[in-house]
């Protein structure tokens, strides 16, 4: 018995003599399929799936949304339509949806139990593109639960947005004791994050928050475009987002940031605002200016929400 190589079939499948054992034939076929599949995967064009986070009430019907684009330099990315996207909560398949002409795929879903959930989205295996798997966070919370929102650059990360671009995640320091304080605060408040970083940095930002053990929570990113009606001003973007969230979640009580426009957006929406930026800046009225997260923690212990002028009312 011998195998005569030929270019039949997948190009490398042998011509089998009639005397060949069936098990050997099956083995060769399996190997051939694996080689073919691997070659097909290698030829797939690179793509990017961008996932988004949500805060929803238990039992609220909402749409999980992701954006699919060709993996190119940011200004040259092209939206990919008609791509089948599968959504999973853990190992449970929530469903699938196809991307529209803007590259957006939306899946209607509902979560009932309060908690923070990680949802992943990935391209169908039969796509001619290959892409990352997303890491979406969905916070399911009773509208009465107290919430705290924090900025990221120079508030949690001791780095500017520009420096962030050229610094590896593991070398970006936190502000002193920021992770420890925020984790202690989660005994009384549920935390979420809001940043002026562009949404192309979602994956890196979440990775940095995770490796530094910040509380798991949803993150909201600036997604400015000339045609998407997103405010071009960072302060306006944050004020607008908070206004939208506050219509449903009445107890967004505390905001922490390092820019005057951060705390102005918080005060505009009735939050207690903690400022930990450069001293000497002109700040909105009733903003509390402190130097560190340790000072914020101590101030909050001595002055619970509702005890100071300008504080929000707990509803």
Provide an overview of this structure.
The longest helix has 21 residues, at 22-42. The protein folds into three domains: 3-41, no CATH class; 45-140, Immunoglobulin-like (Sandwich); 147-302, HAD superfamily/HAD-like (Rossmann fold). It has helices at residues 22-42, 161-166, 178-185, 202-211, 234-248, 260-268, 293-302, and strands at 3-4, 15-16, 45-51, 54-56, 61-70, 84-89, 92-98, 104-110, 115-123, 129-130, 136-140, 147-150, 190-198, 219-222, 252-257, 272-275, 288-289. The model is unreliable at 1-17 (pLDDT under 50). The chain is globular and about 80 Å long. The strands form four sheets. Strands 14-13-12-15-16-17 form a six-stranded parallel beta sheet, covered by helices on one side. Strands 4-11-9-6-7 form a five-stranded mixed beta sheet, with no helix packed on it. A hairpin with a 2-residue loop joins strand 6 (84-89) and strand 7. The chain has 315 residues and is α/β, with parallel strands linked by helices.
Question: Could you give the distance between the termini?
Answer: 83 Å
So how many helices?
Answer: 7
Residue-averaged pLDDT, rounded?
86
The low-confidence runs, each spanning 5 or more residues with pLDDT under 50, are: 1-17
Radius of gyration in whole Å, from Cα?
25 Å
Number of strands: 17
Outline type: globular
> Helical proportion?
25-40%
How much beta, percentage-wise? 25-35%
How is the biggest beta sheet arranged?
6 strands, parallel
Work out the count of structural domains.
3
